[in-house]
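Give me the fold.
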Amino acid sequence: MTITVIIPYKNAAVWLPRCMASLISQNGDFEFVLVNDHSTDGSQDIVRAYPDSRIRMFDNMYANGVSGARNTGIVKATGDYITFLDADDKLNDNAFYQMKKAAQSGHCLIQLNHLRTYASGMTVCKWKNAEGFVRLPNTPLFYMPCWNKLIKADFIGSTRFDVRMQYAEDELFVIDLLAKTDGIYCSEFSAMTHYPDNVGSLFKQKKESDLWKEVEQLERRIKTTYRDKPELKKVIMARLAESWSSKKFIDIIGGSTNGKL
């Protein structure tokens, strides 16, 4: 079994050495697909400096942005399973063993636990789930990013990231995958470490227009695409409720609804 790890990057020269070191230290049948999203800081030279036959380098084949870069990775991937990693994060030790054991569950869509390390140095497992299958709409501690998911390559099929989205694009991708199954398998392993303190990340730079676009896309899925999938609609409604109750969301929109509610 081969696992493809897709890593999009754009001007990530500061973060890539940590990420790359975590890749080449891994044992196991990994394929590392690194996709350059029009970097101008020499990031691609950093990637080239790490000699490992499992590393494959590509340029973004689509529109500028992380969605196009990830779609490029999906097209180029040859592994049996696919997962994603951001250039400012890293794989944990023995990640292949952890992912392989999770894949032995036989499920198409798997959520991995992950560690989160803050600038203070504190590391926690914030979204820890017990091992087992969770049926929709019950998704305890269901975290929507794609980078803590392990997905059968043939299950992804034609599903792609929306290149028009610069925020919540992975949330919509995961929802579209959930539409093809009745739940998600949770692994007890923490296969990667997420660093949320990169002030230059797209997540940190989200704007009011990005949040409205997220809401509009979630509403569209409820009203049209998945109107006949009540269990999935409940999951999407929970995401909407979570967004609107988030202090970060309200801080960004300034307490204004712009007449949309």
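The chain has two domains: 3-205, 206-261.
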